[in-house]
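Worked problem 6 (solution included).
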Amino acid sequence: MDVNELSKEFGFAACFTLTTEPFEYYEKRLREGSLHWAADDLSTDISKEAPWANAILLLIYPYKPFRDDVPVSGNYPASNAAYHASGKMMRRLNDNGVRTERGEVPIRELLTRNGVGTPLKNGLTYLPGFGTRYSAQALLCALPETVYTPVQPRQEARCEGCHACEHICPSNAISDSGYDFTACARAYMGGDPMEDWVMDSMTCILGCELCQRICPYNFVTGYVEDVPEAFQLEEILSGKIKPVLKIVGKNLNKKGRVIQHACVIAAKQGRTDLIPLIEKWCSDEREGVRVAADYALKKLRT
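Solution. The predicted structure is:
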């Protein structure tokens, strides 16, 4: 079975067959405390956790961003689509006798240690032909015949002398020293009550696209022309969440996350016409929603 051809059938633009060696650099960074707290959930030694696997299939699903005037990150719709596509590929492989499971592994190290990707100082990883706008899905496999993607020399980012992402980052999370997740607003937008500095830094619903938008590596990606009606602020603030979650994934409204973001973005856009809809969320049982609604009303009424 040709996994490269199979991946194309499910909508992926590239499939890399990589080794299952331990992620030693990632473990070192974990011990140093230099990684986001969610990093503990990833597997760092496949030989111990899935000794049957002889390869990691890294599937690349590129995406186009929404237009600059659309306050929605294009990452999450793509990630949701890629997740379901990789699930279908996983089932196909298992049906054909190739044991396959999802792999929750350090994607960035997987890309960079094989010379497939280039680390950028904004914390993202550049892939030739795709920029940094792609979803990467990892599958652990027991392939009958393993032909690994050739390892290339590690590529160093050509970020020296370029300060575009540093200058545009609303929370100053990027510098010549690299990316500091503790200063990145996106790291604090997961559903818990957000501090004012986080909401002050927000630019779109679900995530932030500024450093990707300005990065020279992404200048030729193009834009999504049709914006789903589900992303309109009045739709979300009216409580119509299911259409949004169908596009981005059911897990992304944890603690009212989508509603929180819609409240903040409404304030950023000066949408005083949405005040009646936002007011209703001030008595919501979820603290994060109440905090975001109060923030939005304060901004819109001053």
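Discussion: The mean pLDDT is 91.
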